[in-house]
Design brief:
The chain is an alpha/beta fold. The protein contains eleven helices and ten strands. It has two domains: about 1-200, 2-enoyl-CoA Hydratase, Chain A, domain 1 (Alpha-Beta Complex), CATH 3.90.226.10; about 205-250, Lyase 2-enoyl-coa Hydratase, Chain  A, domain 2 (Orthogonal Bundle), CATH 1.10.12. The protein is about 50% helix and about 15% strand. A six-stranded mixed sheet has the order 1-2-3-5-7-10, with helices on both faces. Strands 4-6-8-9 form a four-stranded mixed sheet. The longest helix is centred in the N-terminal third of the chain and has 20 residues, at about 75-95. The two termini are about 35 Å apart.
Length: about 260
């Protein structure tokens, strides 16, 4: 269901339940959550890549799994609440992971699958990738995917996807800001690998500081953001890796990161 492979500081997580279009079932979310929790604590992991097997990155929530609980006494309310909380924890874990997370998409990413792409720090798409938040087609507005989309896309682009439910191609996703790069399908894995390797070569302590600061300051007003990030810069200047990196730059030599 979820394959893991770690090499050279890059942990690749592959959603591998193609027959269910890599739906974010309870089992899939649990597996992905556990893998992210391990990655957060593992110093050997510097970058995480979330990719997929099969034609779909992820079709979002498993609607058959959800619908089966409508026969519960409460028509499924308690179960729906649990699933949505589980999904919210997973998405926030991606954002709060102290290592960068890159989505790699060659197929279709819809609903909560599109939400997962938007929750990742970076995204690389193959030319055949497609994206949608199609809940409006079935009377279920993509309210939780909206959280991730509205924090990545311009408001009108996010609303267009949410209100129409229409599928957008990779080029449109790039224009909207949902993905960073679009490459031919045959080059997708190599391009993601190059991006991940570039980031993995940086100080892990600095990446942790920077990622946390980015997401915290973006929700602040201008004055508060500058006050907060000024403090972050001071703290960052005092870590060993910053001292080493600046020294290496001045001395014109490669830095030797300690991760602290």
């Amino acid at each position: 269901m979820l394959r893991e492979h770690l090499a050279d500081g890059v942990l690749r997580l592959t959603l591998d339940h193609a027959e269910r279009r890599n739906a974010l079932s309870e089992a899939m979310m649990a597996a992905l959550q556990a893998a992210l929790d391990r990655a957060a604590a593992d110093p050997a992991v510097r970058v995480v890549v979330i990719g997929h097997a099969g034609p779909a990155f992820s079709a979002g929530h498993d609607l058959k799994e959800l619908t089966a609980r409508r026969t519960d006494a409460d028509r499924g309310r308690a179960y729906f609440e649990t699933v949505m909380k589980t999904c919210a924890r997973l998405m926030t874990s991606v954002v709060r992971l102290p290592k960068p997370v890159i989505a790699e998409i060659s197929g279709l990413a819809t609903a909560a699958g599109c939400q997962l792409v938007a929750s990742c720090d970076l995204a690389v798409a193959g030319e055949g990738a497609r994206f949608a938040t199609p809940g409006v087609h079935i009377g279920l507005f993509c309210s939780t995917p909206m959280v991730a989309l509205s924090r990545n896309l311009a408001p009108k682009h996010a609303m267009e996807m949410l209100l129409t439910g229409e599928t957008v191609d990779a080029a449109t996703a790039l224009r909207f800001g949902l993905v960073n790069r679009v490459v031919p399908a045959a080059e997708l894995s190599a391009e993601t690998g190059r991006l991940a390797a570039t980031i993995a070569a940086k100080s892990p302590a600095t990446l942790k500081i920077g990622k946390e600061a980015f997401y915290r300051q973006v929700e602040m007003d201008l004055d508060a953001a500058y006050a907060y990030t000024a403090g972050v810069m001071v703290d960052n200047m005092l870590i060993r890796d910053a001292e080493e990196g600046i020294g290496a730059f001045i001395e014109k030599r490669p830095p030797q990161w300690r991760g602290a």
